[in-house]
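Write out the 3D structure for:
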Amino acid sequence: MIETTAEVPPELACPIAPVVDIVFSRWTTPILWTLNEFGRHRFVELDRRITTISPKVLTQRLRQLERDGLVVRTFHPGVPPRVEYEISDLGRSLAPLFATLAEWSVNLDKVEQARQAYDASNRKLHPRN
């Protein structure tokens, strides 16, 4: 192994960092999970299912996901015109990752317990005046 003093770019130091940036941004994960689990949705259906997202942010995220190739937008002309969104094959390739994360979610209680224990010990070490 060759040692170097040059700084390593973050994407080489942690090769999953770019993936995390794409897939795990604030609203990307719930959108992709919803489309993967429940299939094709119209905008209003996604907005109703992901209740905590604003329409503006949903529009922005859907455009970015379409640009990244993770979501397919289909326009249906007519009166009224209709737009549907579905997860692409590339987006669907993330399904095993979502399944693994869902399995890991049983540990969330342990995370909460760890946080409470940390906060309690931190209060003893650093009481507020």
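DSSP finds eight helices and three strands in the chain.
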